[in-house]
Amino acid sequence: MKRAMIVGGGKGGTALLGKLNGLDYMEVVGLADLNPEAEGMRIAQAHGLKTSRNAFTLYEELLPAPDIVFEATGDDSALTELQRHIGVQTAVVPAHVCHLLYQLLVGKDELITELSHQERLHYTVFQSTHDGMIAIDNNGKVLLFNQAAARMTEINREEAIGHLIHSVMPESKLPRILKTRTMESNQKQTFANGRQIVTTRIPLWINDNFVGALAVFQDVTDMVDMATKVTDLESVQQLLQAIIHSSDEAISVVNEDGQGLMINPAYSRLTGLNEQDVIGKPATADISEGESMHMRALHTRMPIRGTQMKVGPHKKDVIVNVAPLLVNGELKGSVGILHDVSEIRALTKELEKAKQRIRRLEAKYSFDDIIGSSPALAFAKEQAFKSAQTPVDVLLRGQSGTGKELFAHAIHNESGRRYHPFIRVNCSALSPALLESELFGYEEGAFTGAKRGGKRGLFEEAHDGSIFLDEIGEVPKETQVKLLRVLQEKEIVRVGGTTSIAVNVRIIAATNIHIEEAIRRGDFREDLFYRLNKMPIFIPSLQDRRGDIHELCHYLLHKINQTYGRSVLTITDQAMQQLLAYEWPGNVRELENILGRAVIHMNYPEQELTAEHLPPLSSEDRTYKPSLHEYGKQSGSLAERMAAYEQKELKAALAEHRGNKTAAARALGISVRNLYYKLEKHGIV
């Protein structure tokens, strides 16, 4: 049974909940709506379902995860967020599809009423026919035994139904159909009472599920009448056409040779092609760019999902799902469903433009976006989470590509400043003169080209919020003095100005350089370092948390799939072993680039990333190996010698375990927390 969750407790979600409840193949396990008084919320609570105002919180609480999420609000942004955050193992159904499903369920109720009438009619016909009919289930138990069969076999109908066919009619050949599942036509047989009949035995299927067998038989004298009874295939075809034509999804059907058989009006509206352009033509007739998924499905006999292509004279962007049509194992053709994505893509581009315009004023990530559960990363996240609860300035340290910016976003979003600006500054991307005017602003006439009226600096823009100073180690010493004033006095002076301006800003700085070495070289002010270093957080490299690579790969693949419109779902064990064996000097950023490059070079229908898809990964050993002159003082006080020896042992342990801090701490007999403390104490990054 499929587990389902509904997002939206309004009219549409409530109606859908009412129709889904009671289905024996689907169970609604939760409903989310921003309005706790929504009608759907009250009904869901009355039925004992889990409810929440936050769809993502509810999704996390529903374990195991729902198989299907019905987005019933009709809000495109809500649908986009659901598709972005919900795992690839869960299908997200848009509001327009929910509406279609509701209509189908309503139609189902009407159909059930009609079928009840039809069933009574069929029962009357079944009992009135001169043909004998016996049906058994897949266990051999008699389900149907009409009056004609009772008359021909001289077996009481009530004594037959519900009993095994062999106990009722030992001479019956129907159990053979349960094994072969193939039809036997016009077979001669003699009953126990001596009556000779001609029978046709038929396997029974419902939605590709084998459910039993049926025997239809007559006296030999009635053979002439049997020839006049044929299956009304035309009515079946008309029913199928009516169903397909009523769908709002664009549908095309081809035969086993790839020739067009049927299209519906929705297909014509989407592609601009009519029946004359498609029916009887090759499956490639509607394709502007790409290969025929119909032909691939016919060749492989496997369904193909999520393939992008352009169709029709206007080169309409669509996503295509195609499945082969197999009847009793015999290929009869294939059916394709096309989804229009051009409008969604245009809206997505507009959304991205809007995000770019406001990206300097908001933090996008939370601690949930920092993927991994290794001890080293868990320790860093714990430190960051605690620092977010206080107004203390933070210094993020770690190699390039480890996710320092994600930590900065998460700290801001977890703090009391979350509803105020979050300003990001890459200190290494700006020249010294430009950096100072950008950070602190300038007065009118401060320099040639200065705007009339002056300009507010980024510290003023970040008032009451946070400012993220990335690559703080690249800031010129002249600007470092002004940064120190901001940290100490909480005020700035614009370039060319004399008036102090108070600012209430939390500084989150980040660096990937050995800042203690920069202090020794005189490139970084020691007093500024100690002001920033109140709350240092060391973000581990990917080498130090290899256990997170598997989880990171699947998270990044989901992200890459959304970016490039792919459907890569898994990574083979061999490919994963190659990724685990690599040193990752570029850390998580390099891992994302490697996976992105591999996915780009994969064929669209492929869903499994193998070792052959990966670009060559260098096996060069990049482990840091300290030399003798780095081991510290050979003379001095006992405290200095002990510190030098401790520093030497720490470096040696890290080198021996290839930079793995968890393994190094275990070898030294200390906790990981204590190791990080000692590394910070000795300036070892």
Description:
GO terms for molecular function: ATP binding; sequence-specific DNA binding. There is one protein chain. 42% of the residues lie in helices and 20% in strands. The chain has 6 domains: 106 residues, NAD(P)-binding Rossmann-like Domain (Rossmann fold, 3-Layer(aba) Sandwich), CATH 3.40.50; 95 residues, 2-Layer Sandwich (Beta-Lactamase), CATH 3.30.450; 98 residues, PAS domain (Beta-Lactamase); 170 residues, P-loop containing nucleotide triphosphate hydrolases (Rossmann fold, 3-Layer(aba) Sandwich), CATH 3.40.50.300; 71 residues, Helicase, Ruva Protein, domain 3 (Orthogonal Bundle); 45 residues, Arc Repressor Mutant, subunit A (Orthogonal Bundle). It has a 6-stranded antiparallel beta sheet with strand order 12-11-16-15-14-13, sandwiched between helices. Strands 3-2-1-4-5 form a 5-stranded parallel beta sheet, with helices on both faces. Strands 7-6-10-9-8 form a 5-stranded antiparallel beta sheet. About 4% of the residues have low confidence. With 685 residues, the chain is of the alpha/beta class.
Layout: helices, strands, pairs:
Layout: E1 2-7, H1 11-20, E2 26-32, H2 39-46, E3 50-52, H3 55-61, E4 68-71, H4 76-85, E5 91-93, H5 95-128, E6 132-137, E7 142-145, H6 147-153, H7 157-160, H8 165-168, H9 174-180, E8 184-190, E9 196-206, E10 209-219, H10 223-227, H11 233-245, E11 250-255, E12 260-263, H12 265-271, H13 275-278, E13 287-289, H14 293-300, E14 304-311, E15 316-327, E16 330-340, H15 342-358, H16 375-388, E17 394-397, H17 404-414, E18 422-426, H18 432-440, H19 458-461, E19 466-470, H20 477-489, E20 491-493, E21 500-502, E22 506-511, H21 515-521, H22 526-532, E23 536-538, H23 549-564, E24 570-571, H24 573-581, H25 587-600, E25 608-609, H26 638-656, H27 661-668, H28 672-682
Parallel strand pairs: 1-2, 1-4, 2-3, 4-5, 17-22, 17-23, 18-19, 19-22, 24-25
Antiparallel strand pairs: 6-7, 6-10, 8-9, 9-10, 11-12, 11-16, 13-14, 14-15, 15-16, 20-21
